[in-house]
């Protein structure tokens, strides 16, 4: 069969079949893809579920992200929401919509990206069902499931006064990568391709989610919209104020400083306001032993007028709301 | 707050919050919407999961379906895939994409449709998470979960030679409703609004799924693409031939005959080829006592050259593949 066949030519059912054939099946699947529903084990009698959508032009651009990148990112961004509960990712379902002119080989590379992200970030997890539809733009909705393995879920609302605030994963690198792509500066894009790659294929610290839960984390969330905005979310849900120590952000800034200079940007903005790193923000009792993957960045204070303070200053909620801002296409 | 506010004006987060506020929460939810993931009970240590997408212009038209209709249909079509496993629908997540110009009140009516379908078709089931994004066209991806309550899942692959083939629910009514809408014949649309309403707000026989499993159904699937096509799927998966007795389809034809005459259509085509009734097609051992909701329509034969026979004639696989056919917009 030709490499130039399109989805419209082979039909959705056949294209979906070929795509699914390339995937790894979840080790947790009792019944995998192909029936009306899949059947997944939930050993402790509960499962976690979360869903998120990526839309072409808004969340990604096809000239910046390959099909493989997109598959990877769709998995990574969703299983970060599983990890943020303290759960182990077990099974995904993927609803994909593409133009009829899309090559079947593009779908196959997308499937390869889905699989690679599962294998690399959450071994044992796999795609157990999918849906393929046609639309003008590419859209991917992933629903991700997890197992709490008998632990209590770590919610956003549990942060306690006196807790240590800590981050696992990168801060500002995905925003740096986006800014580099937006700059169109090919030299800078090549020089800092490690940052561009965090934007294209984020590597959230999935195992850190379970580690945090086991270490007694009192609250946790996935940093998808940036530290300022997401810290405000968890602080509000917990009815406390987060005080972030700017000194503890210097290490994160140092990593992106050089790239910022190359394209005249502000590395601090990336670290504080930039989304899509899909790192984990958590709070721990002050006497807890933090898992090695977590770096302390502040302390939890009684609720004040501002949900988040950066040192002595209130931190405005930056970050994006994708319906209002066209950050990605700015 | 004004009724004319748009999603772009209030922002996605706020619009999503208002939409979710109108929903019933699943009785199976240990943690409902608002955190990184929801947490759902899975009493027998397993859950079923299925996903499906409806896209404007392809699966529905906004001049034919209200926001309420669309919410209803998104739930109904997905929980039919839960019922087809012999499971009880427990929890849904909904990924919705709409243009920024969409009124928040439209979203609220959509939520009302989601809720009404849950309450009416699968009491106890509810929406436990959602995602709102912006796109040129309206798109809804629903992922539906179910509980098998200790029963074995009823697969497509279990039909045995000698089994009775039976249907629960309507056949051809949704196709009749679609043809009526397509005809533009307002008199006929009004006269047969019961059929148009099956197209807009299908009522799959959800409880019949569990009843079938309890009665020993050997195979089952949701009739989403029409009897001919879906019977071929289950026959192929089971490596048998389905022989459907045309006499047993007469009752289904009779229901849509008058509407067919009004717009010069073929009622037999609707019954055999028409999709979207979301009825259940199942097979039972010949000595099983069929649940009252199931009507026998044929018997399972050893695998022959054609997966489905209508009496003595091979039945071609009709039905639609949405990427090839533009049936809905024909």
The CATH topology of the largest domain in chain A corresponds to Phosphoribosyl-aminoimidazole Synthetase, Chain A, domain 2
List segments of chain A where confidence is low: pLDDT < 50 over at least 5 consecutive residues: 319-330
Kindly report the name of the CATH homologous superfamily of the largest domain in chain A.
PurM-like C-terminal domain
Largest interface: A-B, 71 and 71 residues
Helix segment count of chain A? Answer: 11
Name the helix and strand elements of chain A from N-terminus to C-terminus, one letter apiece: HHEEEHEHEEEHHHHEHEHHEEEE
Shape of chain A: globular
Oligomer, anyone?
homodimer
Summarize the helices and strands and which ones pair or pack.
The structure is a homodimer of 330-residue chains.
Chain A: H1 7-10, H2 12-21, E1 29-31, E2 38-41, E3 46-55, H3 67-83, E4 88-98, H4 104-121, E5 126-134, E6 139-147, E7 164-168, H5 173-183, H6 186-191, H7 193-200, H8 206-214, E8 219-223, H9 227-238, E9 240-244, H10 250-262, H11 267-273, E10 279-284, E11 294-302, E12 308-310, E13 313-314
Helix pairs in contact in A: 2-4, 3-4, 3-8, 5-7, 5-11, 10-11
Key words describing this protein structure:
disordered C terminus, Phosphoribosyl-aminoimidazole Synthetase, Chain A, domain 2, homodimer, alpha+beta, globular, 11 helices, 330 residues, 13 strands, 60s Ribosomal Protein L30, Chain: A
Short characterization:
With 330 residues, chain A is an alpha+beta fold. Chain A has helices at residues 7-10, 12-21, 67-83, 104-121, 173-183, 186-191, 193-200, 206-214, 227-238, 250-262, 267-273, and strands at 29-31, 38-41, 46-55, 88-98, 126-134, 139-147, 164-168, 219-223, 240-244, 279-284, 294-302, 308-310, 313-314.
């Amino acid at each position: 069969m030709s490499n130039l066949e399109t989805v419209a030519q082979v039909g959705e059912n056949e294209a979906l079949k070929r795509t699914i054939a390339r995937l790894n099946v979840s080790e947790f699947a009792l019944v995998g893809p192909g029936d009306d529903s899949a059947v997944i084990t939930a050993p402790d009698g509960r499962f976690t579920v979360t869903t998120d959508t990526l839309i072409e032009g808004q969340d990604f651009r096809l000239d910046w992200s390959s099909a493989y990148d997109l598959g990877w990112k769709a998995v990574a961004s969703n299983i970060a929401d599983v990890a943020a509960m303290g759960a182990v990712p077990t099974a995904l379902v993927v609803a994909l919509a593409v133009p009829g002119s899309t090559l079947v080989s593009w779908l196959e590379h997308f499937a390869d990206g889905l699989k690679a992200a599962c294998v690399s970030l959450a071994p044992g997890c796999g795609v157990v069902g999918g849906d393929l539809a046609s639309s003008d733009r590419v859209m991917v909705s992933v629903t991700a499931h997890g197992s709490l393995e008998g632990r209590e879920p770590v919610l956003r609302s549990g942060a306690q006064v006196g807790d240590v605030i800590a981050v696992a994963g990168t801060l500002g690198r995905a925003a740096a990568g986006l800014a580099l792509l937006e700059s169109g500066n090919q030299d800078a894009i090549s020089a800092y391709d490690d940052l561009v790659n965090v934007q294209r294929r984020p590597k959230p610290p999935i195992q850190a989610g379970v580690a945090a839960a086991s270490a007694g984390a009192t609250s946790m969330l996935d940093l998808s919209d940036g530290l300022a905005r997401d810290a405000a979310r968890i602080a509000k849900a917990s009815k406390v104020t987060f005080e972030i120590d700017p000194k503890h952000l210097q290490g994160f800034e140092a990593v992106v400083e050089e790239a910022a200079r190359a394209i005249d940007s502000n590395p601090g903005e990336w670290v504080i306001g930039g989304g899509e790193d899909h790192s984990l923000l958590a709070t721990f009792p002050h006497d807890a032993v933090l898992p090695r993957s977590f770096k302390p960045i502040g302390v939890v204070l009684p609720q004040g007028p501002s949900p988040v303070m950066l040192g002595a200053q209130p931190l405005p909620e930056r970050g994006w709301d994708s319906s209002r801002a066209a950050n990605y296409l700015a």
